[in-house]
UniProtKB/TrEMBL annotation, chain A:
Any one GO molecular function term: branched-chain amino acid transmembrane transporter activity
Protein name: Branched-chain amino acid ABC transporter permease
InterPro entries reported for this sequence: ABC_transp_permease, LivM-like
Record keyword Lipoprotein present: no
Entry keyword set: Cell membrane, Membrane, Transmembrane, Transmembrane helix
One cellular component (GO) term of this entry: plasma membrane
Domain of life of the native organism: Bacteria
Subcellular location as annotated: Cell membrane
Chief place of localization: membrane
Annotated TM spans: 27-44, 56-89, 101-123, 130-149, 169-200, 237-259, 271-302, 322-344
TrEMBL record, chain B:
Protein name: ABC transporter ATP-binding protein
Pfam families per the UniProt record, alphabetical: ABC_tran (PF00005), BCA_ABC_TP_C (PF12399)
Gene Ontology CC terms: plasma membrane
Domain of life per record: Bacteria
Single Gene Ontology MF annotation: ATP hydrolysis activity
Organism the protein comes from: Pararhodobacter aggregans
Gene3D superfamilies reported for this sequence: P-loop containing nucleotide triphosphate hydrolases (3.40.50.300)
UniProtKB/TrEMBL annotation, chain C:
Membrane topology annotation: Multi-pass membrane protein
Species, as recorded: Pararhodobacter aggregans
Record carries keyword Manganese: no
A Pfam family this chain is assigned to: BPD_transp_2
One of the GO biological process terms: amino acid transport
CDD domains: TM_PBP1_LivH_like
GO molecular function term, any single one: transmembrane transporter activity
Keyword set includes Membrane: yes
Primary localisation category: membrane
One Gene Ontology CC term in the entry: plasma membrane
The family this protein is said to belong to: Belongs to the binding-protein-dependent transport system permease family. LivHM subfamily.
Protein name as catalogued: Branched-chain amino acid ABC transporter permease
Length: 358, 273, 328
């Protein structure tokens, strides 16, 4: 089967608007879904699940959220990790306050709580732009983390200052806590990732996504043709924070199990998610997947290669990783400001014409 | 011009011109100490093509910005459909049925032609946030209905072939046309065109003139036009306002303006020998 | 005077020490921003890198020793000599100039005409790269830096204040030196930009890129020049901070604090950077001192950003910046 759209005629606007206009892509999508839901859980061991697949999926959700803010709306945020912390602490407070609440609902509500906090810190975006806004989000980063470590109410006055996830189950399956199986964790993350990606896709392809992009590309013109900047920017903050909050909730609830705000959600995590978005591709859903995959796998690869095989000290590998990521950011911005996703698109465009490129 | 009846009239080429739809009264606009517009009044009738001309820096674009709500004048008032327009942000002005294009193209460069034009329908689409998020029934159906309307505009302006092209890749002339399409997609009652033909060659100008006339003719859209090409202005417009140094120095039919001594001195005197 | 007022005054004076550091980093930001419109996130890491290089040169460390040792199983560390500061500092200046040249060549040249936000993100990448490079080149452990600036409490301040108020203030001698050096640096920069040919070109570029190009000013030269000057300013900041608390990673976090400083002072104002730095330094110490009993300590973490946020809402152009009129 050749990779092309010729012969695949669209007879309605609905079919022209679908996510994967090329037949081959549609098949590829179903194959990926089948592998993710049926094959991977059978073949994957715990090491793979815990060190790569689960963090990858959680970071995908966070990157999708940040991408909506930066890539689609053009609002720069350096406070992603703090909003993840909001999701995590909301999950902790909700589960401990309402033990009977279904855990998936807790995760979603945590996203909504983060949404509200995000809107609050997004308010300055109505008056300030570009890297000025970065400062507003830095305020969120440092203030929220300070709040969570300073006030006992947030961590239920535990002596360590940590929050730890109690055991919760749904449909008789343990999902959180120490006894949760890696399969349960995997499926939880998978369901959320697929659902969130689908939401992101719907929001960005409709009128809402267009108003975000209009604000990104030329905010003054957008306002003159009828985009309400207040609603566009705040809705972007709300949606973005919802995603980031759910990612934080999952990070704490099913992945880490116990966290301390300053350690798990420091400024470096904000940068990590930002880099996923830049390397993967600004303004691209696929990019959020590629960027997250790349930056989750890179340290693991470097560790296996340098530390396990060559016996280098671990901190040296860590420094090398920082250097590589920094260099990559620059290379990506110079060569292809739209990241890996744009590279992928170029390859597909070439493939569409292959083997007759002229 | 004063002898035209208030309720409207029919032009020589058979178009129906209605009563006054937008009236600007004693508008004064200042930037700091500079007066960009000095006490200007004029009106725009329903269905007419109204041109604003004048040398560079005369305040034409500022006038356009006042009409579209981007600048708020310090003095004077705007009557729209008989009512005084209260102070409102530009996006609300857009909702009252006023759409515009820009002197320096203001398209959304990162989006496709189709998305740009769809954005023009922002105030006509109603689906709420949740429906869009779930892409169920109403939202997806609405998207398709509006897509159909947008396709009509695309056909009308003959830009079918670039529908899915990112705007950044288009040549200048086509960008201007896409911008017109985006404004038209809003189905405006008044369309403001800020130098729609600047930087175009003769052929492109002819195309654009034809589109402007067609829009006016087919949809009955009122058009306010800023243009430097005198030939085009005199051909297209029903009435012309002439500005110089922020003041109004002439107002009337193309013929009246052509004969106005102030206008000849200030502006046309150089262009017509 | 009551004790509390005295303590508050002492806290404020200590804020000056930190504030000068913020000012110095912010100064580097302003220089680069004026000349190229680039918001250089890497300024703080440049200070770290400069300090690491200086220490490395002084101690005769072999560059990249950690990675060479790991790769070849060797165990080399030092050349076995120690360079005096008078030699090591000029050498470090040369390194910083070389780095400016490389940054222009490898990074900036390819990003001309990109949007500011892309350039900003590129400098975030640069910051991470330099951080990793510094650690790999010179090792990541905290190092002592001594270029001969006297350390410890200033007995002069102690005695004077004791005689005045009956309570001796504790102030680092180093901060007094830092204050002096910052003043000299700013005066030098102002003189340079007012009275030299390059300074004039610099101001021309800051005013209008296109116009400057059209009269034959080489933009690339100007960029290398500003990044070099910013590198030297970073070295000064690195020496100050390194002498006080050792050369370590925390230095690069100062870069983040410089952001609010710039918002207060305005992105294009050299005096603004200095005043803004001092305001933030003093402000956060005072705020912490006053609010500690009420909301708890460690407010320095966020005070600067919150202050900047409030500021942005009411005076987006900063204390000394010019107002921007938007056009279509």
């Amino acid at each position: 089967m050749l990779y092309r759209e010729a012969g695949d005629f669209k007879t309605s606007y609905a079919s022209d608007n679908q996510t994967f206009p090329i037949r081959f892509d549609r098949y590829a999508y179903w194959v990926v879904m089948a592998v993710a839901f049926l094959v991977l859980p059978m073949v994957m061991n715990d090491y793979w699940a815990n060190s790569i697949v689960v963090p990858f999926m959680i970071y995908v959700i966070a990157a999708l959220g940040l991408n909506i803010l930066i890539g689609y709306t053009g609002l720069l945020s350096l406070g992603t990790a703090a909003f993840m912390a909001v999701g995590a602490y909301a999950t902790f407070k909700l589960t401990t306050a309402f033990p009977a609440m279904p855990i998936y609902l807790v995760f979603l509500l945590s996203g909504l709580v983060t949404s509200a906090v995000g809107v609050l810190f997004g308010l300055p975006s109505l008056k300030i732009k570009g890297f000025y806004l970065a400062v507003a989000t830095l305020a969120a980063q440092f203030f929220l983390i300070w709040l969570f470590t300073r006030y006992g109410w947030f961590f239920n006055y535990s002596s360590t200052g940590q929050i730890s996830m109690p055991e919760r189950s749904m449909f008789g399956v343990t999902i959180t806590g120490a006894t949760a199986s890696s399969t349960a964790v995997y499926f939880t993350c998978l369901i959320f990732t697929v659902a969130m990606a689908w939401l992101a896709r719907n929001l960005t392809r409709g009128q809402m996504g267009r108003t975000w992009m209009a604000i990104r590309d030329m905010d003054i013109a957008a306002e003159i043709i009828g985009v309400n900047p207040l609603i566009a920017k705040l809705s972007s903050f709300a949606v973005s924070s919802f995603f980031v909050g759910v990612a934080g909730a999952l990070m704490f609830g099913v992945y880490l199990g116990a966290v301390e705000a300053g350690e798990a959600f420091g400024i470096n995590k904000s940068f990590l998610v930002l880099f996923m978005v830049i390397i993967g591709g600004l303004g691209s859903i696929l990019g959020s997947f590629l960027g997250a995959a790349f930056l989750v796998v890179l340290p693991v690869l470097l560790k296996i290669l340098l530390v396990d095989n060559l016996g280098w000290p671990a901190d040296l590998a860590r420094h090398l990783e920082i250097m590589i990521i920094g260099a990559l950011i620059i290379v990506v911005l110079i060569a292809e400001p739209h990241g890996m996703a744009a590279l992928w698109r170029t390859i597909k465009d070439k493939l569409r014409l292959w083997p007759f490129p002229h | 011009m004063l002898d035209q009846p208030a309720e409207g009239y029919v032009t020589a080429d058979g178009r129906q011109i209605g009563p006054v739809v937008l009236e600007l009264k004693n508008i004064t606009l200042r930037f700091g100490g500079v007066e960009a517009i000095k006490n200007i009044s004029f009106d725009i009738r329903e269905g007419e093509i109204r041109a604003i001309i004048g040398p560079n820096g005369a305040g034409k674009s500022s006038m356009m910005n006042v009409i579209s709500g981007f600048y708020v004048p310090q003095e004077g008032e705007i009557l729209y459909k008989g009512y005084k327009r209260r102070k409102m942000p530009p996006y609300q002005v857009a909702r009252t049925g006023i759409a515009r294009t820009f002197q320096n193209i203001a398209l959304f460069e990162g989006m496709s032609v189709l998305d740009n034009i769809m954005t023009g329908r922002i105030n006509l689409m109603k689906s709420g946030f949740l429906k869009q998020a779930l892409w169920w029934g109403p939202a997806s159906r609405e998207e398709d209905e509006h897509r159909a309307k947008v396709e009509k505009v695309i056909d009308f302006l003959e830009i079918q072939h670039i529908r899915k092209t990112p705007v950044a890749r288009l040549p200048y002339g086509l960008k201007k046309r896409v911008e017109l399409a985006r404004a038209l997609a809003a189905e405006p009652q008044i369309l403001l065109l800020d130098e729609p033909m600047a930087g175009m060659n003769v052929e492109e100008k002819e195309d654009m003139s034809r589109f402007i006339l067609d829009v006016n003719d087919e949809f009955g859209t009122t058009i306010v036009l800023i243009e430097h090409d005198m030939g085009v202005v005199m051909d297209l417009s029903d009435r012309v306002v002439v500005m110089d140094y922020g003041k109004k120095i002439g107002d009337g039919t193309p013929d009246e303006v052509r004969g106005n001594q102030d206008v000849i001195d200030a502006y046309l005197g150089v262009a017509h020998e | 005077m009551s004790d509390n007022v005295l303590f508050a005054m002492e806290a404020a004076l200590n804020g000056v020490t930190v504030g000068i550091m913020y000012s110095l980093v912010a100064l580097g930001f302003v220089l680069i921003f004026k000349a190229s419109g680039i918001f250089n996130f890497a300024q703080g890491v440049m200070a770290l890198f400069a300090a690491l290089t200086l220490v490395g040169l002084q101690n005769g460390q072999i560059p990249f020793a950690p990675i060479i040792n790991a790769a070849f199983g060797t165990s080399i560390h030092n050349f076995g000599w120690n360079l005096p500061s008078v030699v090591a500092i000029p050498l470090t200046v040369l390194v910083m100039i070389g780095m400016a040249w490389l940054i222009e060549r490898i990074v900036l040249k390819h990003l001309v005409n990109q949007e500011p936000i892309i350039l900003f993100m590129a400098t975030i990448g640069l910051a991470f790269f330099l951080e990793g490079l510094g650690d790999i080149m010179w090792g990541a452990e905290v190092k002592r830096l001594d270029v001969g600036i006297p350390q410890g409490m200033s007995s002069w301040v102690d005695e004077t204040t004791y005689n005045l108020f009956g309570y001796g203030f504790f102030i680092d001698t180093l901060s007094l030196y830092a204050l002096g050096i910052a003043a000299v640096l700013v005066t030098g920069l102002v003189l340079f930009s007012q009275y030299t040919k390059q300074g004039r070109a610099l101001r021309a570029v800051a005013d209008d890129h296109q116009a400057a190009l059209s009269v034959g000013i080489s933009l690339r030269f100007i960029w290398v020049l500003t990044w070099s000057i910013a590198g030297i300013v970073a070295l000064v900041a690195g020496i100050m901070w390194g002498s006080k608390s050792g050369v370590q990673f925390s230095l690069s976090l100062i870069a983040l604090k410089a952001l609010p400083v710039l918002i207060l002072g305005g992105f294009t104002s050299i005096p603004g950077a200095i005043v803004g730095g001092l305001l933030i330094g003093v402000g956060e110490k005072l705020f912490d001192f006053l609010m500690q009993p009420v909301i708890g300590g460690a407010t320095e973490n966020w005070f600067a950003y919150m202050l900047a946020l409030v500021f942005l809402l009411f005076r987006p152009q900063g204390l000394f910046g010019e107002r921007i009129i938007e056009r279509v």
